[in-house]
Amino acid sequence: MSSDDSPLHRFLHADDGPLRLLREILSSVAFVALVALVLFGASGLWPPLVAVESGSMQPHMVRGDLVFVTEPGRFASDAAFRETGVVTSETGQSSGHEAFGAAGSVVVYEAERTSSPVIHRAHFWVEEGENWYDRANASYVAAENCRELTNCPAPNAGFVTKGDNNTEYDQANGLAPPVAPDRVRGVARGRMPALGCLRLGFGENSCFV
């Protein structure tokens, strides 16, 4: 049997039929796997991409965006708070650090009240037991004092966070207590519009409902 008749040669050079289809499928899978490995190497996280499921970060992120996320310490700014890799909005305003159209880092964190990670901006850091009412932007709390404010005094040290399109801090509306560093999955670095719609599928968070 000549080399031109070998199965490998037929697979590599088939112009039509099932061998060509199989070759194209395997090539596509290999390309996707290569891209995934490159993203994982840059991110340090798996998966390195998360889909935005709501409009809480509009206009800087919208439902269906696919967001590239890295470990907090990767590409961290000198303005980051301590060793967290996260720049708060409070610090970002003075240092000039911006992400997705506003001061401070956008973090992906685990919240007890939701099954999916939350993608919101870190506004400032509070210490355990701190009365943070006077540090809060009055527009983002529906309370007259710390006693009336949810999660005040702070039950633990962590970040006070908020969706750019939301009217209250996550801690003020009870979505989460201050976000401790070990609850931060990563920091958002870039977004690809609409590509996350494929990941969201046709459920209640679908781009098509």
Automatic annotation (TrEMBL):
Record has Lipid biosynthesis as a keyword: no
InterPro entries assigned to the protein according to its UniProt record, in alphabetical order: Peptidase_S26, Peptidase_S26B
Biological process, per Gene Ontology: signal peptide processing
Top-level lineage group: Archaea
Membrane-spanning segments: 21-46
Transmembrane listed as a keyword: yes
MF GO annotations: serine-type endopeptidase activity
GO cellular component assignments: membrane
Alphabetized UniProt keyword annotations: Membrane, Transmembrane, Transmembrane helix
The protein's name in its UniProt record: Signal peptidase I
Organism annotation: Halogranum salarium B-1
